[in-house]
Amino acid sequence: MLLQESRRYPETFVDRILPLYQREHKMGGSAQIDARALADLVLGDLEIKAGQRALCEAYSQIARCYSLRFDAIPNRRDDQGKPQFVAHGAEIAPLFQNFDGMGWEPGHNPFSKASESYYDMARTLGLLWASFITHSDPNTGRKGAEDQVMWLGYSVDRPVNLVLNESGVPWVEPDTYRAEAIKVINEVQHSILDK
Which DSSP letter does residue 77 get? Predict the structure, then answer.
């Protein structure tokens, strides 16, 4: 399996973690998960999400902390022309309002063929980020707008993510998905994974 062969995760760890993902996937309504999709999900948690959650839990105890889940598929297509996935770093172009795709390879501008709602999402992300940088509060530029979702602070008692996607309408979700698996990952990060 990819986790052991290419990433060299210990067999005992893989044997412990995979059933947690398979069980959660079955609870979500699907009987089977593709092996590659499972590996991608586990690797995403191992390499990004588990650390993000651990950092938010720790940091929120001493300062204001905000967590974002960027779920907007950029202009990346597979051989059949279907959108691929939201990769690490996909939020960079929208965050910096790089509408012209400067620095991107030809044909890979995240904004080519983007809907107006994708542009709206990018503007929202930019405003939130600028407000956080200048005021340590991402909502400063949005206060008073009753119809807008506010980016809630993260806490151990109320772990939440602001979710942005190509709909252009952000929402708040509990940061509790795959809780058991991510808890196991964070418990063993230092001793087994040497992180």
Answer: B
Q: 45: closest CA among 21, 65, 29?
A: 21
Name the residue with tokens 């067999």. 11
Going from the C-alpha of 119 to that of each of 92, 101, 145, the distances in angstroms are 13, 13, 19
Q: Tens digit of pLDDT for each residue in 112-131?
A: 888 899 999 999 999 999 99
Dist CA 49 CA 133 (whole Å): 23
The pTM for the full model equals: 0.83
